[in-house]
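Dear colleague,

Following up on Tuesday's group meeting, I ran the structure prediction for the three-component complex that the binding team flagged. I've pasted the input sequences exactly as they went in, so you can double-check that nothing got truncated or mislabelled along the way. The structure tokens for the whole assembly follow below. Feel free to forward this to whoever is handling the docking comparison.

Inputs:
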Amino acid sequence: MKNHLIGALLGGCVLATAGTMAAAQDKVVLTMWHGHPEWKNAVEAILARYEEQNPNIDIQLEEIPGQSLIARLNTALAAGEAPDLFALRLGPAVAAAGEAGQIIDLTDKVDISGMTEAAQSAARYDGKIWSVPIFGSYTVGLYYHKEIFDENGVTPPANKTEFMEVCRKLQDSGVTPMIAPAQDGVIPAFLYMMMASSVLGADGFEEVRAGTRRLDDPDVVEAARFLQDIYPCFADGSLGTAYTEGKALFALEQGAMLEGGSADYAGFLQTNPNIDVGVVPFPAVDGGTPATVTGMQDTFSVNSESEHPDEAIAFIQWMIQPEAAQMVADTITLSNTVGVSPSDNPVMKEMVEASLSNDVRVFYEFPETGDVFAAIQENAASLFLGEITPEEFSAKLQAVVKPSGA
Amino acid sequence: MILIAASVLVLIPVAYMVLASFKTIPDFFGNPYGLPAHWAFDNYTRAWTEAHVSITLPNTIIVTFCSVAGSTLLAALIAFGLCRKERAFALTLYTFFVSGLLVPVQMIILPLFILLKWFGLFGTLAALILPYIALGLPLGVLVLTPIASSIPRDLFSAAQVDGASELQIFRRVALPLLKPGLVSVAILNGVWMWNEFFIPLIIAFTPSSQTLPVGIISFIGVYSTEWGLVFASVVISTVPIVVAYLFMTRQFQSGLTAGAIKG
Amino acid sequence: MLAQSRQWDGRGGRRRRQSALARRYGHLLFVAPGFVFFIAFMVLPSLAGFAVSLTNWTGVGTDFSFVGLDNFVEALGSWPLYRAAWHNLIMFLAILVFQHTVGLFVAVQLHAKPRFMEVYRTILFLPVIISLVSTGFIWTLMLSPNIGVINALLKDLGLGFLARAWLSDPDLALATVIGVQCWNVLGWAIIIYLAGLQAIPEELLQAAEIDGATGWVRFRRVVFPLLSPSFTALTVLTFIGQFRVFDIVYVLTGPLGSPNFETDVLATLIYRSAFGGSSIASNDVRMSYAVALAVIVFVIMAIASTFLIRVLRRREISA
């Protein structure tokens, strides 16, 4: 008897495994993966607008946190089960998928002329458009709490000397000068990119890519020295603090400053609706120009195995038109579409202003300097701990630069 | 005394999690260890709907149950087949199966994906159940084979004298004696199958085939995370397995006794 | 085998009618169903995975070429592999000691059947049931030097001088990860040892008592040797568990095994090589190299566990 029962249950398992797939659809279904669960509501609102205007389209969005998404997407792509719309990491990954014919060449299919110069250059790879940054870009600078600064009589620093002075004053009055969640090395990498950019500027960065300038040139080494010198200004336990925790700590005024991007602000508000912050370019290495860096948020591609490529391409085109771009600018981060600026958001406007003087593209979006980011991630902790000198650190970074001239 | 201390140490983090599951984001960071300033019960309702628990919970139950049943049964058959060392290939096959415990899942995930697609299983729950059955075998064989070997031979030969076939001997003689071991294998494998994150993340992503652990991470953002929601869904996903554990405790205890003897 | 057959022949008539083939290989029919599953979903994918390790495939695109054993040569010559393996080894040894001391001690207490024994046992097993990922989240937040409950608790108890940046102090991080894992795995030690204790016949203990052995002496001379199967089972489980540990380390200290790789283990190293160290950018990603690392880990573990099992079995026999 008992065995029959088990048999029946096992039979049920066989049936369960036969599983039925979703019923017939009279709509065109586009599947889309995105790596930012925290923006789910904002993204869904944009998609709803699109579906409202295109009643025959149903976009099925799935939000998976970035790091997990990469593991899934890479595997699905290799197995031929990737969704219609997805974002690969800009740089080598997009290029490899493009060369393998896994994503559609959008060169003559999507008109990106309305996008900013940076966005256009990010979209083009060897003259072809493989992916389009439809969720805007992020500019990274230095956030500070206005109230904490006022209370302690300090103003936003513009260079290293001023920064160290602000740091000392804040510490003297018992305030943690800077939140720097360095666990995964991402924040140190952004700090370094801004410090180095203050020396190099956009032109100098082009020279690094071309191989006529080096990250271990003595003046650029000063950027690494700056990075090492500000470590004592960081909050306790920075080396083990995760990115999201650090951002929450800053939002809750547990520290006066944070390196942060335009995409972070919405998260601050979520944690602390009363937050009052300002944003400036990151202080320069003495003698340099304070810099911001800008990177593309998610550059979406269309799966070449998609059953509805035309619909997917039409969606990408719509995303960079002013209407959607405005929604991105208002609810997610800075827009890549010319003429679209965040309405009613003084902090984002400050961010736009901050980026006007000396803004450099993030290093990792270029094939020549792509590996520098990973090299900073891997070596920043030992620089902070004094196990390696700024000279050695810079040499390690230069070692992974692949100059285009060479 | 020591037991009370140990229990308290174990319970503090659990209590912390349960409290946190009732907090809003500002409350969570502003007041990390007190009682919630205001009990955010809607974390649970949101976790339930936004993580699609109404789909993922039945899926997880079906997947875990079928995988545990399949894996345990097949492991028992293998253990019975290999329980006498002098049989052909017995030791070789035993080592072969057990070495599966050492295979890192990252190494097999992509070929597994492609294989499941070939079989036309992609998008069904079988895409999880079949690999889980295979992945559960090494532990099952490791635990059950020594127990099967410890069954006195006379029992088998007596059944043979009575005219029982090998299959009947397995069902009527071996299986009942293996029962405690079966229970421990079921729990050992069941716990990891229930909580497994990486495999379903990669190979079970159609909306109809998702499982609980993957639903939970959809609350973990890159720029900010709603911890209250995360912990509410962790609590939701832990309760069923705690209940199942309480249900099986007595069985389990005797199960591991038998397992440990020849462990 | 010969003796076996003759014995059966002598007893049962039915046996004789079975062909020699069925007698010799009949048992393999029982192995066959599981064998098919195992080959299909374990062995074939493993072999395919191994094939990937012989190429230079990055994981994206279809561009790759055969590079032979280059990945293996590179991996074996790289310092991070040994650093990670060293951390795995330390974790294994530390947790092994914990399991065989604290775990055993608690199990002995439980075996004395105190009141509420069932309650204690259930509570102590709870961490095993809670998923490793969740365990990681809970402890990350509790250990945080900024918002964590642990430091706050220490201060309230007047032990503020003990408060630390647990997971970010390079000298403490590995120990902290081990501590969290102890919380997580104590349940296994208790369950396995308790089972072993309950299997010891009462008469043996009584006999020892009559011989005048009491307390510690009785435990060491009589009880502990009888627990050696539990000892073996727990040691092997701990070995496999600690050399494969991933989720909990990944959640506690991130993909880089922070701070400064002090908690980097083999599995995080493999994961980082396969999928990168962050979602934003990490371009030094090579699936083929990651798989080569995985194969190396597999081989080392296979050798080590064979050795381990042999030693433990010998100890058991002599005990």
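Residues 257-263 of chain B have pLDDT under 50 and may be disordered.

Cheers,
M.
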